[in-house]
Amino acid sequence: MMRASRLAPLAALASLAGCESSSQLPMTTLAPKSDLASEIHQLFLEVTAWDALIFLIVMVAFVLAVFVFSTRAGEAAPPSQASSDLTLEIAWTLGPALVLLMISIPTVRTIFRSQPRLAPMGSLEITVVAHQWWWEFDYPDGHKTANEMHIPTGQTIRLHLLSADIIHSFWVPQLGGKRDVVPGQVNQLTFIANVPGEYPGQCAEFCGLSHANMRLRVFVQTPRDFAMWDKAELAGPATPPANDQLAVQGAQYFATSPCTTCHTVEGVSKGYIGPNLTHFGSRTTLAAGVLKNDPADVAAWITAPQTIKPGAYMPALVLPGPKLKALVAYLENLK
Length: 335
Ligand code: CUA
Fold this sequence. Notes:
Immunoglobulin-like; three-stranded mixed beta sheet; disordered N terminus; alpha+beta; single chain
């Protein structure tokens, strides 16, 4: 009989599979939700159609060769083979060249269309900074957030992609194009999202121990909802209400805690190593989309980040229970 511990990975896999099937958030390129993703999808369909045609021609030739034009037992030997046939030689040189041409024309056209050199007029330009292993989003009006990017529908989004350390790759399948994020270089991604929703993304270039845990989410909102979110982000951090003793204590503790070395909370601390926490409580996830943002997971993350995200630069903070509870209450209050 299998021991329970041996079954654990299987159970984990099964629960993961359950997560995926019940999730409304598929990481798929087959359901495009932006102009760029639609163009790439269209290209995929075109190339697949050509592939299917070639497959059909090869299969017909194969079946004819095997079942129609082959020698059967008892039949006379085949006629002598010609040493060369110029027409055939030309045909099977030109054929593949033509196939490559049919595929390369739409591919090159899509590549050029997807990379305008300048930001189109009226673009919302967001700077994306990739870190091991999280994403920073800097908005043109001055606020910063992490791992969850909000954008409006119908407006051109121009992402300027920078890396703080090594090579990463920004990829939100339903919004289109994977784009490498290279240190010392600014790459661009330009698209218009057209359907409100929540779209998951993932770093797509191996970047160390927690590469798989370098996830992100894009919230595509109506222009009105986006403007409201943007306004709330521009405001300073929420102050804990006086009757929330726990959060008030947490605020006092945070102000003198080691957290302030790496994290910024506007008007409270200035740290640039970890994500900006000014509106931490308004995010749906933490640790680059690995955990959901609820008190139990926040506490787990603070006390043992390495077990959740191997290699993470966040040090574990060993705190007595009440202090940890207060700190979590303060962070969750930062809407
Ligand atoms: Cu960053 Cu993989």
